[in-house]
Amino acid sequence: MNLPHLEMRQTSAKIGINTTRATLEQHQQQASLSIEQPKGELSLETVAARLEIDSSQAWIEIGRIPAFESVQRYADYGRQMGQQAVGRAAAEGDQLMRIEQRGNAVARIATSRQAPPAEVTTLGFTPRSLDRVKINYTPAEVRVNYTAQKPQIDVEIHRPELNVTPGTTEIYLREQNQLDMWPVGGIFDGEG
């Protein structure tokens, strides 16, 4: 028996997608930098060294006496010799005045006026020791003052430049869905 039946064919719908990627362009300009370094301030102050040498005692030991002291010594010596000469002249005058008492006063006065004995010379070192020369040294002083100056730094930054092109997505119907039906077998009168 040939029974009529329906045959069906179905096609599903299909979609399509078109995608455009997003793009990003970035440009970064370098920062502007300026550095200025002022000079530091430097000052130097120097006090000179001082060397003092006092060799007056050593000079005195070899007979070289400073002028003021030499004049004073000779004045004292002259005064003393003058007093001795006056005393000797008075004593000799007294002896000559009493010539009758002791006799031969002129011979005694002549004998006393003979040349003095010769000086004895000895060998020695001058100055006798190093403490005769006095040395005083004051070292130099150097005072250094430095004031540093901070650098002046100016920075100008530049923001990045961004160019963004957004992406797109397009969805479309690529194939329409479809349902087809038809009768198969038996008698089909079309009326139903």
Q: Main traits of this protein?
A:
alpha+beta; two-stranded antiparallel sheet; 192 residues; single chain; 26% helix
Low-confidence stretches: none
Strand percent estimate: 35-45%
For the largest beta-sheet, the strand count, sense and barrel status come to:
2 strands, antiparallel
Please state the structural category: alpha+beta
How would the global form be characterised? rod-shaped
Helix and strand element order: EEEEEEHHHHEEEEEE
What is the multimeric organization of the chains shown? single chain
Distance between the termini: 19 Å
Describe it:
The protein has helices at 56-61, 67-97, 99-102, 105-112; strands at residues 5-11, 14-20, 23-27, 32-36, 41-47, 50-54, 134-138, 141-147, 152-156, 161-165, 168-175, 178-184. By secondary structure, it is an alpha+beta fold. A two-stranded antiparallel sheet has the order 1-12.
